[in-house]
Amino acid sequence: MSDPSQRKVDTRVVVETPEGVDFQFIIAGPGSRAYAWLVDMIFKVAIIVVVSVSLSILGAFGEVGEGVATGAILFAMFLLDWFYGSLFEALWNGQTPGKKSAGLRVVRTNGTPIDVTSAIGRNFLRIADMQPTIPIFFPIPSGLAAIVLFFYTFGMISMLMTRRLQRLGDLVFDTMVVDERREWISRAGGLTARVEALTRAECPRKFSVPERTLAVIERLFETDRIISEARREEIARPLSEALRNRLGYQDPAPDPRNPHTFFQTQGFRHTQFILRVLKTFAQDPTGAKSPARPEDRSNRTGTGRGPQVNLSGRRTVSDAEAMRLIAGGPGS
User: Fold this and answer.
1) Is the pTM of this model over 0.90?
2) Which of 39, 61, 256, 301 could bridge 98 with an S-S bond, Cβ 3.0-4.6 Å?
């Protein structure tokens, strides 16, 4: 008989980068996606109500005004149906207001951010996921009206048959919806034991770093990653430069009395800098060295191929964000 643990449903997906760094994603289930859809639907209805109220003034111009108002409302409904999700996901990096409230994000199956083509395409194919549809007719004074019910049957079948819970639009455009919410876990010390923390005087701009950025830094130094120091320095460079710009940090000038030390450290200055950032902001991303809470001292760890990122009283990094951070910096 097979081990019962091997028969459990697991919605985690591990993506390995060419640098040998693993990113673990948790696939969003139908429940959380339905919640995000409901929030987005509320937003759409609110927009239609605002447009309708704003155009009600045209009713004073008689039938012509009413016709223009009705046409404008129908046009607004068309735009919302076809372009609401597309534009938000393209501009908000894979999120709509509903997905953002639910902690979800659309990414490509290799973990990279979604592009404009994928955002538009997967949303345009939503009409296929909605099938079959059932129209319900009812009488009104001027004739018959109909309400079309969408059951998303095809989309649900597609999600149940794919490991990443992908609907038809996701399958065609190679995307998946991930859950970015994470548990809070403690952080193993020692990584920054011999590193000097940054001072406020060295950072004239912001003196805060998002916790997800700290988690990305710690991922880079996981002991099970076989990465040379030179390769780690190369990977750390874009994140280091973005953090320097955020904090306003400038490398100190060489010490005239001992210039050799300066040049010896230049080969790994990006690696050393992000370790100093981790040393400074690991306990509190705002820079305050508050003591760890009792509940944060538990030593829970994630699962996957290797040790997962640990933070001091902070949640683990969102892996969809981690892929962006290494490529494009820490954000706000």
Assistant:
1) no
2) 39
